[in-house]
Amino acid sequence: MTPAARTQAAIELLDSIIVSARDGGPAADTLIARYFAARRYAGSKDRRAVRGLVYDAIRALGERPASGRAAMVALVTQQPELAATFDGSTHGPQPIGDGEGAIRTGMAPAWVQDALQRSGLDRAQIAALLDRAPLDIRVNTLMGTRDDALALYPDAAILEQTAAGLRLSPETPVERSDAFAGGLVEVQDAGSQMVTAAAAASADMTVIDLCAGAGGKTLSLAAAMGNTGRIVATDTDRARLQRLQPRADRAGVTIVEARLLNPGEEAAALGDLRETADVVLIDAPCSGTGTWRRNPEARWRLTSARLERLITTQSRLLDLGATLVRPGGSLTYIVCSLLDAEGADQVAAFLTRHGGWAAEPLEVGTPHGSGARLTPASDGTDGFFVARLRAP
User: Fold this and answer.
1) Is 336 in the active site?
2) From 18, 336, 347, 364, the catalytic residue
3) In Å, how far from its chain's centre is CA 48?
4) CA angle, 294 then 298 then 301, to 5°
5) Residue 92 to residues 71, 101, 295: CA-CA distances in angstroms?
């Protein structure tokens, strides 16, 4: 592909990403994979170059642009050399016209940036949310040790703040490796490993992972439990939950029971588990402000109305989770968001509603409200809020 053709490909991809962000469709990574699956002529260098342009444009624009062309023209203000690729050639975009390029670059929609600042993040902390993310893995201790993984990834850095984490070069093809196929390693951000460990799950417990999704934290819990006890992994998303069993089989995990729930009918479906769990983990649906390094287009998806719906869902899940905890058991609440409305404020409201419950101190991140916070700038991880709440 010529430089102009790469720019045009980036424009086409951005067009689809903008529509998907507006309509709640697939993530940018998925759309990029589909685009190149239909264009086998594009070599690996072309794919990397186009992908880089797409993500550079997404990171440059806090507000969702009107079109892919508008996004790429705006990127010219940061990468002036791109202007020459708007050459009107057969596979390239038309020259930039007078008046184009007026889109304002920025970190996030103004109302989101204000909310982050009110949640105690300074400009440097907010800017770090758009840094490029590292590649972290969790060594599955049911299959081997961290030393076993280090023998396969000798250039890896040990993540000392985790029990079994390593940081690799971002170009490492982990999911095509024998270590991954054999269940020795899973791709998982260090922050995700740390907040899951905050649940303090151990052998022979009954654990409920209330928003299990595809099971990343479920498998981490199983390893912490030594594959003894019981984990009930639930979700309302059939497609995501169906990915759990193949992952569990690869990881050698045998204690997980997946349970698909109907939205709004979760309490009835979990009636048999009422007041039985030693640990309930709620990795709640959230705005994802802490994962912008990996999904920068999430800024384009967030609206105040969507945030309000998420806050309502989080509150409902906390109340549901409380009914499942045995007397003296614990509930660990996690969001990959740095907005207090989804984190510290949610926990404060829960403690007001549920007399006798108490927040416990955590040895992770920085204390924040009745829990703790991890941020890219302070911890080198994705952004999270986590709290562990003890039942009376």
Assistant:
1) yes
2) 336
3) 22
4) 165
5) 15, 18, 27
The amino acid sitting at 114 is: D
Task: For residues 273 and 372, give the distance between their C-alpha atoms in angstroms, rounded to a whole number.
Answer: 28
The 10 Å Cβ neighbour count of residue 37 is 8
In the chain the first and final C-alpha atoms are separated, in Å, by: 64
pTM exceeds 0.70 for this model: yes
| Dihedral-angle region of residue 191 (phi above 0 means left; psi in -120 to 50 means alpha; beta otherwise) | alpha
> Which residue has 């549901």 as its token pair?
320
The answer to whether 41 touches 91, Cβ cutoff 8 Å, is no
Spatial distance between the Cα atoms of 315 and 311, rounded to a whole number of angstroms: 6
Chain segment 309-335, per-residue pLDDT in tens = 999 999 999 999 999 999 999 999 999
Residues 6+ apart with CB under 8 A from 232: 206, 207, 208, 209, 256, 257, 259, 273
> Residue 178's Cα: distance from chain center in Å?
25
DSSP code at position 261: -
What is the C-alpha to C-alpha distance for residues 157 and 136, in angstroms, rounded to an integer?
9
Q: How far apart are CA 314 and CA 310, in angstroms?
A: 6
Q: Tell which residue, 303, 358, 367, 332, has the closest CA to residue 63.
A: 303
Distances (CA, A) of 252 to 55, 56, 98, 138, 236: 36, 39, 61, 14, 25
Q: Is 335 left (phi over 0), alpha (psi -120 to 50) or beta?
A: beta
Q: What is the 3-state secondary structure (H, E, C) of 63-115?
A: CCCCCHHHHHHHHCCCCHHHHHHCCCCCCCCCCCCCCCCCCCCCCCCHHHHHH
What are 146-178's pLDDT values in tens digits? 999 999 999 999 999 999 999 999 989 999 999
> How many Å apart are CA 205 and CA 332, to the nearest integer?
15
